[in-house]
Design goal:
Blueprint: H1 4-14, H2 22-27, E1 29-37, E2 42-45, H3 48-59, E3 64-73, E4 76-86, E5 91-93, E6 96-98, E7 104-116, E8 119-127, H4 129-135, H5 142-154
Parallel strand pairs: 1-8
Antiparallel strand pairs: 1-2, 3-4, 4-7, 5-6, 7-8
Length: 156
């Protein structure tokens, strides 16, 4: 049986843009395993897991994860990494799509992988979503937030 670290390293390999094997990635999870995108409050289960990978790769087809530190302690593997790629696909948002900019991303990330008997039970990805958005030219809209707060405060 592979070590927990080997399972996690295989998951990263399968999620690279030049490999992208969503079904192989999903096969590393327990039947009820979850992939949790923590900053965006999204949870993927079952067949949603490979769809999450292909969705991200559709926006950043050359996606690469540079592993900086990998620490395996019992059934937990903690990884510090950088998610890198080029914004070549439309980026979906609740208000519409951000058209491709060609900008490079280099997003600091920390991942926690929880394994059970050699399978991934839970994968929590803590990516700096604000950095990613800024790098594709979608910085925060402070003006609208301030105006909305003023409107709410005055009841206008």
């Amino acid at each position: 049986m592979k070590s927990n670290e080997e399972v996690v390293r295989e998951a990263y390999r399968l999620s690279e843009g030049n490999v992208l094997d969503g079904h192989g990635f999903r096969a590393l999870f327990t039947e009820d395993g979850t992939f949790n995108d923590m900053p965006n409050s999204l949870t993927f289960r079952g067949d949603q897991i490979p769809q999450a990978l292909s969705g991200f790769a559709g926006v950043f087809p050359d996606v690469h994860r540079e592993l900086l530190e990998v620490h395996a302690v019992g059934d937990v593997v903690a990884v510090e990494l950088r998610i890198q790629g080029t914004h070549l696909g439309s980026f979906p948002t609740p208000f519409g799509e951000i058209r491709p900019t060609g900008n490079r991303i280099d997003v600091p990330t920390a991942d926690l992988w929880y394994l059970r008997v050699g399978k991934i039970e839970r994968f929590n990805c803590y990516n700096a979503a604000n950095v990613l958005l800024a790098q594709i030219g979608a910085g925060p809209d402070f003006k609208s937030a301030i105006e909305a707060a003023r409107t709410a405060a005055t009841g206008a």
